[in-house]
């Protein structure tokens, strides 16, 4: 008899913890409210819930895959460990001086984000390594010994070490790490040459500080989680989703927790990418809206767009540059404070604003009946008829229309001079426009026109808002996959084991040195493969290589895919041609007369996944008979309409429902506006098609 496979994906969000159980290809899902004081308890509650629905014992689970926002939340809320930072003499204030770029050029009272480590907790030591890796000044043993004693006497919980040019030679950072290991082996020490060995000291220093800052908390949390799972009978391996869209071991996650920054949203991007690949859709925008935030990611040729930097905790109107830039591999996406729990208010100009503050799960939106007093997006959707108060979260969380109305009236309607329905509509329209603007900007920044894309929406809130976003963005096609309400958790189950190793090595193409390149790529691949095998053992893998290149004099690079092979002198023209092609794709032109240089390199080793099964989308279908209706407010028409109400599980491939309609399921509801028709697909997805397009099919 074949051994039963019971794989569980768990995503902790700001409001809900989502759980997906894949039992030999059959999916069981559930949602529970996130427990802020004991996040692991929500995981255990969720696992018991889906196991009960599947009819199995928790002891039968074979794999647990977990993603969390714990790292991001700790950085935003400044709830990390008391950390000391050690750097090269003369560079103590790099993390405070930042770069010369201003995120708001004309603000005379500009306030820069406060570093995670105060100046009094930053220490220096006399050492120096050149940009080529030559050791210019060794650390004097006596100075290092005195520094270690001084720092230990202060009682720090974590140490971060970042030296100038340590990406080129880590010898001095390793010496400091060893000195602390000998003196206080229990103390957590992170060094930049291991956490983020890339050029640009400001980003590298920020990254190692962030890693050290959250490492004790994350390590303790993961330790508690594994122990609680074992005590419950779940003794299987536990893996973590990392920000670049792959799986790593709990040990690796504990050592490099900064790689977990966007682990939950990365699972959502993997979820959407699988469907994009199945449908052969080469231009897809994924829209993930949960209880606290909304995330938008571009997926091209079946793969999410990735980057080697990420900015967390933006403090000034979400402006780029106002946050904490970290150099760590991530799935590139734009994230805004727009979720079901986002709080609405009226500003001094009598304008409705939504977010970024969220009611989260404690106390939650006013309609949750858990003590929340502020109106949220969920309250607005309830008042507009888009949610069924008796069937929310499969009936697990009954919603109160009177409490939602009271909060909306007292905090928004009465202040803005509107009636209750106008206020609720204003809240949803503001949040929809915020998300639409974010999607427009993200695609334009990548040289794309969003109207040419297909949207794939998931998360508990996205199906409620996605059709309206498509109207605003002139998008004709929208896919709501099966299990959309817990999409990120399902995405974890589709992710490969992977690890991205990075390294800064500056080289101009005029000084092309294939031997140095080959040695570096070989070293990076061995490093990445070791981390993959630590989690997955000896498995078949693929290797992806990127060189980050720019024209001489430019301040930013673009990632260029290159082959993993032994290079020779003549390959310099290959690098040049691929860079110019990539630059032209992004900016529509190349620049004559400028040199080209490479700054950073990365290699990603990933386990080989089975090819996706191709599916042809049905873009039209046969209208079904409607037996139940509900009224909701159609934003485009600015009025209440009578809509068909259909349970999703009753739809068969080829069935069509013309909007306005509400398609209901346990984890979410899909709003089909008057201008769209929904067509059921062979894989249980739903395709929403603009009616104007259907007339031409």
UniProtKB/TrEMBL annotation:
The record's section on SUPFAM superfamilies has: Actin-like ATPase domain
Span of domain Hydantoinase A/oxoprolinase: 204-498
Location of the Hydantoinase/oxoprolinase N-terminal domain: 7-179
Q: Where are the transmembrane segments?
A: none
Which domain of life does the UniProt lineage start with?
A: Bacteria
Location of the Acetophenone carboxylase-like C-terminal domain: 517-680
Q: Which InterPro entries match?
A: ACX-like_C (IPR049517), ATPase_NBD (IPR043129), Hydant_A_N (IPR008040), Hydantoinase_A (IPR002821), Oxoprolinase-like (IPR045079)
UniProt-recorded name of the protein:
Hydantoinase/oxoprolinase family protein
Naturally occurring in which organism (per UniProt) = Marinomonas vulgaris
């Amino acid at each position: 008899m074949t051994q039963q496979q019971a794989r569980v994906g768990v995503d902790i969000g700001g409001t809900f913890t989502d759980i997906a159980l894949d039992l030999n290809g059959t999916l069981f899902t559930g949602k529970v409210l996130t427990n802020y004081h004991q996040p692991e308890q929500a995981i255990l509650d969720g696992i018991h819930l889906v196991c009960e629905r599947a009819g199995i014992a928790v002891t039968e689970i074979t794999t647990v895959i977990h993603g969390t926002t714990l790292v991001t939340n700790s950085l935003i809320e400044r709830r990390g460990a008391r950390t000391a930072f050690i750097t090269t003499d003369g560079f103590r204030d790099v993390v405070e001086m930042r770069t010369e770029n201003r995120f708001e050029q004309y603000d005379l009272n500009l306030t820069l984000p406060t570093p995670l480590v105060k100046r009094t907790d930053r220490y220096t030591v006399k050492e120096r390594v050149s940009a080529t890796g030559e050791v210019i000044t060794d650390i004097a043993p006596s100075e290092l010994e005195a520094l270690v004693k001084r720092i230990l006497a202060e009682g720090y919980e974590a140490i971060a070490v970042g030296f100038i040019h340590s990406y080129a030679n880590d010898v001095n950072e390793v010496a400091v790490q060893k000195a602390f290991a000998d003196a206080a082996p229990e103390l957590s020490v992170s060094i930049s040459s291991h956490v983020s060995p890339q050029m640009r000291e400001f980003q590298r220093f920020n990254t190692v500080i962030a890693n050290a800052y959250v490492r004790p908390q994350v390590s303790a949390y993961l330790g508690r989680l594994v122990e609680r799972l074992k005590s419950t009978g779940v003794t299987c391996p536990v893996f973590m989703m990392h920000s670049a869209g792959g799986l790593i071991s709990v040990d690796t996650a504990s050592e490099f927790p900064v790689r977990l920054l966007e682990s939950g949203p990365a699972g959502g991007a993997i979820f959407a990418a699988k469907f994009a690949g199945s449908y052969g859709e080469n231009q897809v925008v994924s829209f993930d809206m949960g209880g606290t935030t909304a995330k938008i990611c571009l997926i091209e040729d079946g793969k999410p767009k990735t980057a080697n930097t990420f900015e967390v905790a933006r403090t000034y109107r979400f402006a780029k540059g106002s946050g904490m830039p970290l150099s760590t591999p991530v799935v590139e996406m734009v994230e805004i404070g727009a979720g079901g729990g986002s709080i609405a208010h009226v500003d001094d100009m009598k304008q409705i604003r939504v977010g970024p503050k969220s009611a989260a799960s404690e106390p939650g939106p006013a309609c949750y009946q858990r003590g929340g007093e502020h109106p949220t997006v969920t309250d607005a959707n309830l008042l507009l008829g888009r949610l069924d108060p008796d069937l929310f979260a499969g009936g697990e969380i009954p919603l109160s229309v009177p409490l939602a109305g009271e909060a909306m009236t007292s905090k928004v309607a009465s202040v803005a001079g509107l009636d209750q329905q106008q206020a609720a509509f204003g809240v949803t329209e503001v949040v929809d426009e915020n998300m639409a603007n974010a999607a427009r900007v993200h695609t334009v920044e990548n040289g794309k026109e969003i109207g040419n894309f297909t949207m794939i929406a998931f998360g508990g809130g996205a199906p409620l808002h996605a059709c309206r976003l498509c109207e605003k963005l002139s998008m004709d096609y929208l896919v709501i996959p099966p299990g959309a309400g817990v999409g990120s958790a399902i995405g974890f189950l589709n992710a490969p084991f992977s690890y991205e190793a990075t390294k800064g090595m500056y080289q101009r193409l005029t000084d092309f040195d294939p031997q140095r390149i080959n040695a570096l790529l070989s070293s990076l691949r061995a490093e990445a493969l070791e981390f993959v095998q630590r989690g997955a053992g000896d498995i078949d893998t693929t290797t992806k290589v990127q060189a980050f290149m720019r024209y001489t004099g430019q301040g930013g690079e673009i990632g260029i895919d290159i082959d993993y092979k032994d290079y020779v002198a003549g390959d310099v023209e290959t690098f040049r041609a691929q860079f110019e092609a990539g630059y032209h794709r992004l900016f529509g032109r190349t620049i004559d007369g400028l040199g080209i240089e490479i700054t950073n390199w990365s290699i990603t080793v990933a386990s080989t996944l089975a090819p996706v099964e191709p599916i042809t989308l049905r873009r039209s279908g046969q209208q079904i008979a409607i037996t139940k209706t509900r009224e909701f407010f159609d934003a485009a028409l600015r009025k209440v309409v009578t809509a068909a109400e259909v349970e999703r599980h009753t739809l068969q491939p080829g069935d069509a429902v013309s909007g306005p309609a509400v398609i209901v399921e346990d984890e979410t509801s899909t709003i089909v506006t008057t201008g769209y028709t929904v067509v059921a697909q062979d894989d249980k997805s739903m395709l929403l098609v603009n009616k104007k397009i259907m007339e031409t099919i």
